[in-house]
């Protein structure tokens, strides 16, 4: 099993290209099931989750070709994938696929909308707390689907097709909004989604669906209206840049007193995060090429209280990384995690590196002024892995991060990007 070794203390300087957004790429790849025409998607990141999803789509009968994965081809611009779901051979998404990645469950929406049936295993993914699918299934039921759960599988049917309906989510759900958007695009009549998620990845999916012929208004707001069409057609779309990757590297730069251009990063997708970083003393400058991040000789200021919130608030996917940064702040900080109840599993590993963190329920108190020292640590989930990398970049001596397959799910060529900016980091392969 691969590990990552870091010798801390080197400032990051240079350019880090930001990859396409995993959380936009996955639902858009799933949306290829909505049409028998080709869908070409550019700027797809080279990630384990993408590979797994393509394998699942291939299992359904989707034909796909990939450009950009051969030696000598540009690795900074992402993959270009052309998919065509012309001859679907199976509407079942089996356990061995869906158990490894939660986003695989989303195939239930296009399979049901286009073919009137789907049998999909209950989802898996990172162990970061309960993430039930009740809201997702509620949306499909509202559009006329019959839903049963049997032996760990969701069995959905709509032999006469789906119909438009009002959908009111009781809480914000990105996955539920993705599913409702895809299903409603082929439903008969008008669907109105209330309390819809507003994330940029939702907007990107809606933009791709619109290019395919869907009629969608209001994506990016809490109220989305979709007028269903009888069929969708061919399209070409470029994925937005990954705001979580950009935020992670911004914090790594701040941690090491570095100076880096995050090429391709979109400031509009990170307004809350960049505002918080500015409050800590980090210099942030938007440029035509991306976001320039630097901290030179300025002590890190603590943040008295930070709360994770749905977009446009501070994202839970950057909470662990920010905690690592605040271990070096000049004073105490406090982080309130409001999205997932088990997203503090990285704390014990940060403590192994010398961090001073105390937990009280869903609140973490970080003392700051830590003297981080390298040690063997173990990644527990995708974003926790990134927090250990950030801490390791500043820790004295050698840090060995185990179970880095978590990182490979969401960060493309992390050690290559950091190494190009001066980090002493390498992957150890057994």
Spell out the blueprint of helices and strands:
Elements: E1 3-7, E2 13-17, H1 22-30, E3 39-44, H2 48-60, E4 63-67, E5 79-84, E6 92-93, H3 95-98, H4 108-115, E7 117-121, H5 134-142, E8 146-150, E9 153-157, E10 166-168, H6 174-185, E11 190-194, H7 200-211, E12 215-217, E13 223-227, E14 235-238, H8 243-255, E15 259-263, H9 271-279, E16 283-287, E17 290-294, E18 306-307, H10 319-326, E19 333-336, H11 347-352, E20 357-360, E21 363-366, E22 376-378, H12 382-394, E23 398-402, H13 405-410, H14 414-419, E24 424-428
Parallel strand pairs: 2-15, 3-14, 6-7, 10-11, 18-19, 22-23
Antiparallel strand pairs: 1-23, 1-24, 3-5, 4-5, 7-9, 8-9, 11-13, 12-13, 15-17, 16-17, 19-21, 20-21
């Amino acid at each position: 099993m691969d590990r990552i070794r870091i010798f801390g203390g080197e400032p990051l300087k240079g350019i880090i290209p930001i990859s396409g957004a995993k959380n936009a790429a996955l639902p858009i790849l799933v949306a290829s099931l909505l049409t028998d025409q080709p869908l070409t998607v550019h700027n797809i990141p080279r990630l384990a989750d993408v590979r797994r999803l393509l394998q699942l789509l291939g299992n359904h009968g989707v034909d796909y070709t990939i450009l950009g994965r051969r030696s000598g081809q540009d690795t900074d611009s992402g993959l270009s994938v052309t998919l065509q779901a012309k001859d679907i051979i199976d509407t079942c998404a089996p356990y061995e696929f869906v158990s490894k990645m939660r986003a695989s469950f989303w195939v239930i929406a296009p399979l049901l909308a286009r073919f009137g049936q789907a049998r999909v295993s209950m989802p898996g993914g990172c162990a970061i707390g309960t993430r039930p699918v009740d809201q997702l299934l509620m949306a499909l039921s509202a559009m006329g689907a019959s839903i049963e759960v049997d032996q760990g599988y969701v069995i959905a049917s709509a032999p006469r097709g789906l119909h438009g309906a009002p959908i009111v989510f009781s809480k914000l759900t990105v996955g539920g909004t993705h599913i409702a958007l895809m299903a409603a695009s082929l439903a008969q009549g008008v669907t109105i989604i209330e309390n819809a998620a507003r994330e940029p990845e939702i907007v990107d999916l809606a933009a791709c669906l619109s290019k395919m012929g869907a009629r969608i208004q209001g994506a990016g707001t809490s109220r989305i209206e979709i007028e269903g069409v009888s069929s969708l057609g061919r399209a070409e779309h470029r994925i937005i840049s990954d705001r979580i990757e950009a935020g992670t590297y911004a914090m790594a730069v701040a941690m090491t007193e570095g100076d880096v251009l995050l090429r391709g990063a979109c400031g509009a997708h990170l307004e809350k995060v960049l505002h918080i970083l500015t409050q800590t003393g980090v210099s942030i400058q938007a440029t035509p090429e991306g976001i320039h991040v630097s901290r030179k000789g300025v002590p890190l200021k603590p943040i008295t209280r930070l709360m994770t919130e749905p977009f446009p608030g501070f994202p839970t996917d950057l909470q662990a990384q920010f905690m690592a940064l605040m271990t070096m702040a000049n004073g105490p900080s406090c982080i309130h995690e409001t999205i997932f109840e088990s997203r503090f599993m990285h704390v014990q590993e940060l403590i192994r590196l010398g961090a001073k963190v105390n937990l009280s329920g869903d609140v973490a108190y970080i003392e700051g002024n830590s003297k981080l020292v390298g040690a063997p640590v173990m990644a527990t989930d995708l974003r926790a892995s990134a927090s250990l990398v950030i801490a390791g970049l500043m820790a004295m001596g050698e840090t060995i991060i185990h179970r880095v397959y978590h990182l490979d799910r969401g960060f493309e060529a992390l050690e290559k990007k950091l190494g190009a900016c001066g980090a002493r980091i390498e992957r150890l392969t057994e």
